[in-house]
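Q: What would this complex look like in 3D?
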Amino acid sequence: MFEPGATFPDLCLPDHNGSKRTLSDLVAADPVILQTYRGWWCPKEQRYFRRLVALQEELEVGYARIVSVSIDPPPVAAAFRAGLGARWTFLCDPDRTELERLGLRETTDTVNDPYVPAVFTLGPDLRVHAAYDGYWYWGRPTPEELLQDLRALSRDARDDFAAPLP
Amino acid sequence: MSWDWLSLPGMPRPLRADARVFDPEGAACEVSLVLVPEGVQIPMDDPAVQEARRRILAEPPFDAVTTLLSDESRFEGSVVVARGDQAARLADDPFARLFPARRLQVEAGVLGTVPPPAGPTIERYGSGNPWPWDRF
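A: Here is my prediction, written as structure tokens for the whole assembly.
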């Protein structure tokens, strides 16, 4: 698991539409919530996604981003995303190329070989601010923890986080 | 550079567009052009305009999208670009739910393809910039 202060690798994967994307391009210059999840079938992921979907209305005005990564192929990820009502990018790693590079394979599921559920909050330079191991559901960050992380990351990333006053 | 002037047939004057949509090597394309009618003023922050931006993020991507601006607060219209089989989807241009859209055939060398916005941000990065330009 990547520790705070480490630089997260710049992933290169197809998105839910099948277009190749890099993490650095998706992040651009904003703080980001990077989530790895097992796959559409997992009830824990279905539940946790509902939390993220509830958060997206704040992120859509807060200049922050979400990127979700799984082994689901693009058509499956696109259908799952649409059903959730998510409006952020899902990256697809059905060949498990980035999964192996990241070392995030969940070893206890030998049928699906999925990603370990995890959440990383990253700065625009892909520096890890916080890492949450979601193997057990309660290891995942609460919305409040994510908002606290985004506040800290935004404070670092925005020179004018303190409002410019006369 | 985050914006440039765009002028297409039917536009009474050039309007600011996301500079990434311009591509001198772009293939011919079809465009859904939405223009706010003369005499109507609608803010970029109007909930209807916000919802159109959400629909752009939620639905399968087009080759390029830009909102059109003339100043820092008013929504003046939008351009949605598609090619090939995807052009049929221009009938579902989310901005066409605000005002009627015109379909244009645009020759090669004008408009390109831009990666879809990462989402979920619908805000502009600086009030003078068209959406979906995505950085300050």
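A: To summarize the key features: Chain A touches chain B at residues 15, 17, 19, 21, 25-30, 56, 59-67, 78, 82, 85-89 (CB under 8 Å). The longest strand of chain A covers residues 65-70.
Q: Very helpful, thank you.
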